[in-house]
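Sequence, structure tokens quoted for completeness.
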Amino acid sequence: MDILPILQQGVANAVQALYGMEVGAESVNMQSTRKEFEGDYTVVVFPYTKAARKKPEAIGEELGAYLKENIEQVQDFNVIKGFLNLVLSDEYWLTFLEDASTNATYGRQPRNGKVVLVEFSSPNTNKPLHLGHIRNILLGWSSAQLLDAAGYDVKKVQIVNDRGIAICKSMLAWRKFGKAETPQSSGIKSDHFVGKYYVMFEQKFQEEYRFWQHSEQAGSLYKGRKKEEQSEAEFFKAFKNTYFNEYSALGKEAREMLLAWEANEKAVRDLWKQMNGWVYDGFEETYEKLGVDFDKLYYESDTYLLGKESVQQGLKDAIFYQKEDGSIWADLTDAKPALDHKIVLRSDGTSVYMTQDIGTAQLRYQDFGTDRMVYVVADEQDYHFKVLFEILKRMGEPYADGLHHLSYGMVDLPSGKMKSREGTVVDADDLVAEVIAEARKNIEERGELVDMDKPELDEILRKIGLAALKFFIIKVSPKKRMTFNPQESVDMQGQTGPYVQNAFVRIQSILRKAGNASRNFSDYKTIESGEKELLAQIYAFPTVVQSAAESYDPSEMANYCYNLAQRFHKFYHDYSVLRADSEEAKAFRLELSRTVANVLESGMEMLGIEMPERM
């Protein structure tokens, strides 16, 4: 039974009956009662003072009396200043627990017939997945699971960035310096193997650049182009990209390789397929470790020409305009808030990323008929997505109002920022291994699970380690930049995944010891305050599912699970379960504990986190 709508409608009826004021039930401000006061739910009465022409305390007393008289679930009330605290009857909570404990899908909503596409991960094929990708993947996966729980038909996709100059850099380095080495011959995981050559290209390029800086040509350029009071070191730091594009021998070879790829030259295409195949195998292994999969993969090599026809049609429809050089632009200065002029097709007719994204969005709508599209991309691309969404809206795309950029802050380590080209990133595989190692170290220091077989212990450590990694990242609001600390993530006493898992494991231990104890708690008469706190927290679960899904913020669910685990640990400390004063109290507390475990397992599953039976 969903009690909040009943209470809100009751307040609306009371205000109408007592003061002649019409209010919508949905506008009634109601929240959980603060712990220091008696009650389950609190009504804010200040909005009714003008109609009632009475002090808030008097209004609270009159509304409370009306609700107690007319709503059977309201057992009592009290008024603190302008707040009416309602006490629900024990009969209501007993019925609620019985319903929740027997509902295998409690918290999940029925199918609503709407399709949501969630794009996440979308890596480049010149390097392995790293810590930054992990935050993207975990946000995308958990958002998809929450949307599924909220009733949507969810399609999980990624676009693999498998072409471009960065990919050619790793290809060129392997061709020049690889000596036919393979992942198999080197013993290196295949995506890490390709990433090694991407880093190697940067190292060789830096060597070339440093040597060139001592040349006569470099000296002349410095003297001719330096700004006032600009040191030689500052000049060459700023000049690096220009050097790559105009002077570098390696840069020229990489650009020529890209042109050869675009011309479909067989030798280059064969090398590209071989090295991308290595990367895909490595990605798949990492996704499997993280428990992640996709419904469809898109590849930039297939989509980079998309959108051109739509841009030309948009030009005919006066959505875009053409400059004298032949390039096509969108004037978005009248958008709210105002944006800028944005190029959508170059003067030579080639695409920009915006062109591709327009075409890819249209293709996905053709594939899935989506009502919404969610792009999980770092906040560095905020402006890009504002422009993309505005353009799609002006083009009249049927899904334009359902576009959302799940923007997130970058992830740092305690040691600072990471740089892929310099090889200072923390690869996803290494990070997974590290948190599992931290979990093992933690358990060994406590001297636990020493009697367990190695395969079973390894599986438990895998679940604990991944819970530590996933929860630590997901619990932070996506918009915040964060620092990931592997040691803190496995702390059994902190706001961590293992802490939540421990509550679940503790309950499983209680249930095992209880055996086939009675589950009949219908005669339990007096629910304690700590028990009501757990019941109220369980009641909130469906609302949290809906809120986290609609706001694309999995941290809401992570923090809910932590709070529920925290309250259970307190309940376990304050109340005896197996040695309760009566059989009815024992049955009630066992069922309450079992339902807490079910909700924790369900909520953590939506975050991609598995629960161990022991730890």
In short: Residues 93 and 532 are 8 Å apart (CA to CA). Residues 418-423 have pLDDT under 50 and may be disordered. Residues 434-605 form a domain with the Isoleucyl-tRNA Synthetase; Domain 1 fold (CATH 1.10.730.10).
